[in-house]
Every structure is written in structure tokens, then in C-alpha cells.
Amino acid sequence: MTNVFLYVDFREFLRDELQRRSLRNSKYSLRAFARDIGMSISRLSETLSSTAGISMSTGQLIAQRLKMSDVEKEYFLNLIMAKHGRTPEVRKKAQRRIKQYKARRIFIQLRENHKELLSKWYYLPLIELLGMRCELSSAEISKILDISQEEVVAASLFLAEKGQIVRNENGVWRKANIFQKIESSTPATAIRQFHRDVLKRAAAAIEAQPIEKRKYLSSYFTIRKENIAEARQDIERFNQWFLKKYVTEKNADSVYVFAIQLFGLE
């Protein structure tokens, strides 16, 4: 599904979701989209052309059909309220909530598809490289990631198919999600291998990059085992704070890796 948090207009979200599905399947039509989200084709056509709005109940149905998470559903319904709330005050409150979501810069959690997305270590950095406003050629990306141009093209098509990157109105790739948080309640093999690949590149960077362009920090300390869970949560909070402060989608000119390790010596 297209990342709903990128939008401030629910119609633009629906148009792009239709386009995404059409790109994946050339036979996919407006009628098919109307069927899939539980609307009549005439009503959907009127909605997309801005000649009609949608009710909250219809919004609830669309969110259900698109299998939105609770937070995605809440944001989507606020987009509808911001346009079609019954009173000016309702619309203003919805607009304020939308701004609050944007300020928090929502992290998208992926659980079901993390194995596919982590199956190649370069998928995640490729998303970032393709999302930069300074357009890079496949040759430039190939050099940065140290993979072949054929792998760059194949990976780009894979990420587009999975809805991780989408083309804008100018045909330029952009990220579908602002941030992604990939986690598993079990020690997934794909996640373990991903971290191994990141650590290999971190080790290589010690030799390849000048110290002013990198930062490595290792501390040994004593801790009570009962406090480890809280320490892990603090690292999560710091990671989110760090990314919110420094990640930019405007005029970005490089892609960096921010990795934190906490492990016992036993």
C-alpha cells in the first residue's frame, strides 16, 4: 500500500494507490479499484475528480479493505475530516492532528515483508539513494553500493513492485515511506544476516573513510541484568530522536548508516 503519511489530501493518496496498482498490473482498472475498496465506480470517479467527498463510514471501509494499521487508519480518517468535517472546528482539529503526525515523522513498521526487504543488504540504502532529490544514475548508484548496474535495475523494479518506491508526476522515484522500522518478536534469520552485512561494511569504513566523516564509539560498562530491557528501550528512543533531527528529504546529498550495538560479553 502507498504510504498514507506522505499525504495531506486523501484524494491524492487514492489516486497514487490506484496508479501504483496499475503499474504493477497493466489490466488493473478504476472499476477494479472501486471493487477492492468497496465503492461504486461512479462514486469513486466523482471522488477522485473532486466533485464529491466521502463519508467517515466509507473511509472506515476503505481503511479496512486496504488493511491499514490502526495508526494509518486514524491518519487517513483525519485526512477526510480535514476536507469534509461537518463544522469548521472539526476540520481545523483534524488539520492540527495531521500536522502533529507530520511533526512526529511516523515510523512505518514492517513485519510480514521484512524477510523480502532484508534479503539483499542493499535494498534499504537503495531506497534512500533513489529518494534523494539529486537524481543519481544507475552507474553512480552502482559505484556507491559496489554492486552491478544490472543489480541496481533489478532491485529498483523489486522495490517498486513491493511498494517501497513510487514514481512521482515527473517520473522520478521517491520513497513510499519516510522511515521504516523492521522488527520481529523472534530472532529472525533475515534480520540477523542484515546486521552482519551492516557490520561488515562498518568494519570496511574504518579503513576506507577519514575519521572526520565517520564516528565510532564503544563503551564498556557494568549493568544489572534487570535493567537491560529498559536500556534497550532508551536506545530505541534515542534512535528515533536522532533520525528525526538529522534526516532530511530536501537537498540531501549523501546516505549514511547509523548503527548501534548493545551486547553482553558473557
Question: What would your notes on this structure say?
Answer:
It comes from Pseudobdellovibrio exovorus JSS. This is DUF4423 domain-containing protein. Residues 105-264 form the DUF4423 domain. Helix 5 runs antiparallel to helix 6 (88-104) and helix 9 (138-145) packs across helix 10 (149-161). The longest helix is centred in the last third of the chain and has 20 residues, at 189-208. The protein is globular and about 60 Å long. With 266 residues, the chain is mainly alpha-helical. The protein has twelve helices and four strands; from the N terminus they run ααααααβααααβββαα. It folds into two domains: 4-104, no CATH class; 114-246, no CATH class. The mean pLDDT is 85. The strands form two sheets. Strands 1-4 form a two-stranded parallel ribbon. Strands 2-3 form a two-stranded antiparallel sheet.
Features:
12 helices, 4 strands, mainly alpha, 266 residues, two-stranded parallel ribbon, 2 domains, single chain
Strand count, sense and closure of the main sheet?
A: 2 strands, parallel
Pattern of helices and strands? HHHHHHEHHHHEEEHH
Per DSSP, the total helix count is 12
Poorly predicted spans: none
Residues in helix, %: 40-55%
Number of strands: 4
- Quaternary status of these chains? single chain
Q: In angstroms, what is the radius of gyration?
A: 21 Å
- Total domains: 2
Class from helix and strand fractions:
mainly alpha
Pfam family, one: DUF4423
Protein name: DUF4423 domain-containing protein
Domain DUF4423: 105-264
InterPro entries: CHP02147 (IPR011873), DUF4423 (IPR025537)
